[in-house]
Structures are given as structure tokens and as C-alpha cells.
Write a structure and sequence with these properties.
Layout (H helix, E strand, L loop, with lengths): L1 E7 L5 E10 L6 E11 L2 H11 L6 H22 L7 E12 L8 E5 L2 H8 L3 E3 L3 H5 L9 H8 L5 E7 L2 E7 L11 E7 L2 H10 L20 H7 L3 H4 L13 H10 L5 H20 L5 E7 L6 H11 L4 E3 L10 H15 L6 H4 L9 E3 L2
Parallel strand pairs: 1-4, 4-6, 7-10, 10-11
Antiparallel strand pairs: 1-2, 2-3, 4-5, 6-12, 7-8, 8-9
Helix pairs in contact: 2-3, 6-10, 7-10, 10-11
Protein name: Anhydro-N-acetylmuramic acid kinase
Catalytic activity: 1,6-anhydro-N-acetyl-beta-muramate + ATP + H2O = N-acetyl-D-muramate 6-phosphate + ADP + H(+)
GO molecular function, one term: ATP binding
Length: about 375
């Protein structure tokens, strides 16, 4: 079955689409990547999404029009990749603007902008969307959603595999080795900020000229303030054991302002180096108790930041960093491919989450199906 996957991440830079051929066993399918396309958001749409993600108020009309604009951008990306409509099914994550995991007896909620029935109508194909709601309703985190899909797409190897995604948030997938007991489970969780604080800091420190620290230039040559990094690593989220997930509700503009206040008086390069090394340090701290890894596979927008990659290599040595592309799955296509697979599982009635990963009371189907 040919399935089209659509993913737009926390950084809100645009939509990634993949066309995936899936067949065979559901949990270990044979798959082939038939194509990938990236459709950048317009500057206006990106700025509106970033503002909403930081709590900017919108009227009901503006909120609906923003969902409509996101839906149309997703449809445009899908058409550019698959103009002939070869895909029989579409899996679309939508655009996350807020994610609040369960805490202190309060249920979790998550908001992904998308008009699923409209997308199904625009593409004239069934669409699976709203992947987090069912897990959240069962007491789960609703995130991360991709670990089981990662394991299915990458398979098990002789040694345990760790996959790090460096989007707005850094998240890990841990896949047991093939020789482990059958009951050995795939695990995954959100480590903390990856690009979220870096992008916001670059925008603020450049007086709005930059939307990210392109090629790590702002951080290059800077010296991280290690005392602050050690202090930040003691904060409650980084001491919490999985299941756990996070987003801009924790690591957004307010959090950045607090950290910049603590860095007041330091040169811009040192500020950016500190935030960059902080993103690397939260990953290193989470991986420290995980023995037997042969390498850390790396994907996400953060792979294009040499300063962040250097910080990771320094803090994870001697564990080598390996681009995900070298294991047969292009890093740029990984998340969209995961949502194609999750949509296929939903179509087939197969659960896409486990309590070990999300903390829900039981495994559940992920996604709502909208007919064209």
C-alpha cells in the first residue's frame, strides 16, 4: 500500500512529505521510500505560528483561518510530491502550537492545527490525523509518537540502537538489540530543548533578523558557562524519569527570558554557546545510564548546526554520532515516514503507542480517520 506522510515540526519552518510503499508484516513491514518533498511555510505563516506557539491571543476567526492556512499548506506539499495521487492513504501530524503533558493530577492536552476533513476533501483520499488525542484521553503523554515506528522502519541490530531527533525538542528512541528477550521493549521520551531555545535566542539577539542560528555561527567561538549548565540540569524536568514529554509550554519565550537573565553581561557568542551546549547536555545526561550502544543515530534540523553537533560529540564521547542517512532512512524523511506508518497502522487497526513510552493505561490506536 502506498501511503503519504506529512509532518511539520515544532520549529514551524514548513512541511515534509514522503511517499512510502508498505507491505508485509505489520510490525516489521517491508518498506520503500518512493519520494520526499519539503514545502517551506511562507514567512507570514511561520511568524503567525511561532507567535501563537508563544501564547499570542487570536480571535476565533483568526484561529480558524490559521488552521485553514496550515491545512492548505499541507495539501500543497502533498500535491507537489504525489501529483498523480498514487497514495491510497494520508497520515498528517498537523502543526503543534501547544503541548501540555499530564501533571499534578491534571490531564494532558495537545493542539495540532489541522482541518482533517478538509485535507481529505482537498486530496480526495482518506486522512489520518489528530494522532495524540486518544493516548492523552487514556492518561498518556501523547508523545513521543514515533518510537515504535522508528523500530519498525530501522529494525533491530546486533547492538542496541539509539536515535536522537533534534527538532524544536530533542527526543530519543531506544531500540533493543535483536538478540534480546522478546519482551524487551522499545522506549522513547522527550529529553528537553534542542532548537526551540536556540531559534528564539537567535531571533531575539539579532533584533529579529534571524530565525535560527544558521550553521551555528552565533555560537561559534563562544565559551559555554558550565556552572549554569550544571545548575539547569538539576531542574525538575531533567530529573524526571520517563514517560515524559514537553514542548513550548516549558521551553518557550518565558523560559528563554529567564535563562538570558542569568546570562546577562556575557557576550552573544558565549550566550549562544551556553544554550547550544545545554541542548547537548540534556541528551548526554539522559543517555548516561544506557549501556551497550554502538552509536547514536542523529536526525532532525539540528544536524545542520555544526556547533550543536560538536557539542554533542564532546559531551557524548566516545559514543560516535552517525547521521541517520547512513542506516538507509534519510534524516529529512524520518518523521514524515513515521506518520505514514502510523496512519497505515491506524488503517489496519494496530496500536501505535505503548504505556512504557507514553504512560497511557493501555496501548491504543493513534489517529482519527477522515473520509474524503
Amino acid at each position: 500500500m502506498k501511503v503519504l506522510g506529512l509532518m511539520s515540526g515544532t520549529s514551524a519552518d514548513g512541511v515534509d512529505a514522503v511517499l512510502l510503499q508498505l507491505r508485509g508484516r505489520l510490525r516489521q513491514p517491508r518498506w520503500r521510500l518512493l519520494g520526499h518533498h519539503h514545502h517551506p511555510y511562507s514567512a507570514l505563516l511561520r511568524d503567525r505560528l511561532t507567535a501563537v506557539g508563544q501564547g499570542a491571543p487570536l480571535s476565533a476567526q483568526a484561529w480558524l483561518e490559521l488552521q485553514e492556512a496550515v491545512t492548505e499548506a499541507q495539501a500543497s506539499c502533498a500535491r507537489q510530491l504525489d501529483p498523480a495521487g498514487h497514495a491510497r492513504l494520508v497520515g498528517c501530524h498537523g502543526q503543534t502550537v501547544w503541548h501540555r503533558p499530564p501533571r499534578a493530577g491534571r490531564r494532558g492536552v495537545s493542539c495540532q492545527l489541522l482541518l482533517g476533513p478538509l485535507l481529505a476533501r482537498l486530496l480526495e483520499r482518506p486522512v489520518v490525523f489528530d494522532f495524540r488525542a486518544n493516548d492523552l484521553a487514556r492518561g498518556g503523554q501523547g508523545a513521543p509518537l514515533v518510537p515504535l515506528a522508528d523500530a519498525a522502519l530501522l529494525g533491530r541490530r546486533r547492538q542496541a540502537t539509539a536515535l536522537l531527533n533534534l527538532g524544536g525538542i530533542a527526543n530519543l528512541t531506544l531500540i533493543p538489540p535483536r538478540w534480546s528477550a522478546a519482551a524487551a521493549a522499545v522506549r522513547g521520551w522527550d529529553c528537553g530543548p534542542a532548537n526551540s531555545l536556540l531559534d528564539l535566542a537567535a531571533h531575539r539577539l539579532s533584533a529579529g533578523r534571524l530565525h535560527c542560528d544558521e550553521d551555528g555561527r552565533l555560537a561559534t567561538g563562544g565559551v559555554p558557562v558550565e556552572g549554569l549548565i550544571r545548575q539547569w540540569l538539576q531542574e525538575p524536568y531533567f530529573q524526571q524519569r520517563p514517560p515524559k514529554s514537553t514542548g513550548r509550554d516549558c521551553f518557550g519565550a518565558d523560559d528563554l527570558a529567564r535563562r538570558l537573565g542569568q546570562l546577562q553581561g556575557h557576550p552573544t557568542a558565549d550566550v549562544m554557546a551556553t544554550l547550544t551546549h545545554f541542548s547537548a547536555a540534556v541528551v548526554a545526561q539522559d543517555l548516561a545510564p544506557e549501556p551497550g550502544l554502538d552509536a547514536l543515530l542523529v536526525a532532525g534540523g539540528g544536524v545542520r548546526n555544526p556547533a550543536l553537533q560538536a557539542a554533542l560529540r564532546e559531551r557524548l564521547a566516545p559514543l560516535p554520532l552517525v547521521p541517520l542517512d547512513q542506516r538507509g532512512l534519510p534524516a529529512v524523511a524520518r518523521e514524515a515516514a513515521a506518520f505514514a506508518l502510523l496512519a497505515w497502522w491506524r488503517w489496519q487497526g494496530v496500536s501505535g503507542t505503548t504505556p512504557l513510552i507514553t504512560g497511557a493505561d493501555r496501548p491504543c490506536l493513534t489517529g482519527t480517520l477522515a473520509a474524503p
